Amino acid sequence: xxxxxxxxxxxxxxxxxxxxxxxxxxxxxxxxxxxxxxxxxxxxxxxxxxxxxxxxxxxxxxxxxxxxxxxxxxxxxxxxxxxxxxxxxxxxxxxxxxxxxxxxxxxxxxxxxxxxxxxxxxxxxxxxxxxxxxxxxxxxxxxxxxxxxxxxxxxxxxxxxxxxxxxxxxxxxxxxxxxxxxxxxxxxxxxxxxxxxxxxxxxxxxxxxxxxxxxxxxxxxxxxxxxxxxxxxxxxxxxxxxxxxxxxxxxxxxxxxxxxxxxxxxxxxxxxxxxxxxxxxxxxxxxxxxxxxxxxxxxxxxxxxxxxxxxxxxxxxxxxxxxxxxxxxxxxxxxxxxxxxxxxxxxxxxxxxxxxxxxxxxxxxxxxxxxxxxxxxxxxxxxxxxxxxxxxxxxxxxxxxxxxxxxxxxxxxxxxxxxxxxxxxxxxxxxxxxxxxxxxxxxxxxxxxxxxxxxxxxxxxxxxxxxxxxxxxxxxxxxxxxxxxxxxxxxxxxxxxx
Length: 498
Description:
By secondary structure, the chain is α+β, with helices and mostly antiparallel strands.
């Protein structure tokens, strides 16, 4: 067996069995037992709190050492390495993901999905191809690059409260990220990153990043919040509630857009929002349509005219208000007129209530009138569908550049100057300014399930560099490793047929 259990140390906690990517460890009589599927990836020894698992110096018979990453798995015939990228087929390690050769219009000649990895990085990339495009000789360099500096940014279109900014996010009890800032109508999560990947729970972090990047459903828990089930391209489920509408704007913006419609329906309107609560009659948009302050004071902290800061929570509009009556702090009866009507709704129009002011200053809830229903529908109809979006982020400014050319700095400069184009799994990237090659890519545009991970731990991204041949020569590209695109396709086609 590749790994050995020191039975005198083992207490049967089961951490090694839980983390093993091949389920190659079982517990028997409260002891860890290594199974035939073990590839000696070493995860078990790194997670064991008692150092009860160590590597056997003798490699198993007929096993092949995989050299595609620093882990150096020992793969027996019929088995795959820890990353499941390579399988020992009759004594040969074969990349078990089909090579996605079809490039993209105006993109790479081929994608890196299924291309494999040449490690260490001083070797030329696995595939460097050339073709003529619009009378220009173009080169694409591809590799599946293990990236320790990687993560995902998860954008959740929802007003539902997910947790306080900075709150830790856990998956299966392990910290995998934190709640980030909010964007317009969306909550942002930051998952992964180098510090978490290299931390004690890095294996869980790596799997979580890749699950998100490959469009899988992921369930997370936020400190101070509740469970969230998230998947790229799908509606978010927060605390068991599937959100369907993304807010049209904050409460103030909603007033600004629909003041005229609201005026025809009610005398006053409060638009609840965890960021900015809007009050129709006091708002400048209310004045624009001929209203003056009604005497109603919202239950929120005043910012500017007709704009109030809401408190985040699990209530209406992502605020801490659960009963629409709570939306009103007080009514100044020296200004307010008995009989006036008040609409309380939220920026998605999913909840609404209507009140009439009595002479004693109390609010009497009444059914929504048809004009009020129409106003609420107008707000809802202008909302987008709530969805989850995922951006994979990574850095390829390190040693991975050596597989592209002999001048790493020139590779970076070519990318930043627009002479070389960086794509991920065929998808365009946004290159962050400044030093290095830090990028972001929409995972829904990448070849499906194009990401994987290795137990260093790191995620593996399909990276492509495309540029004119003359630029590739200027940056010191591996010219001797170039293969004509037609030749590569013909060779791979023949390999499949044979």
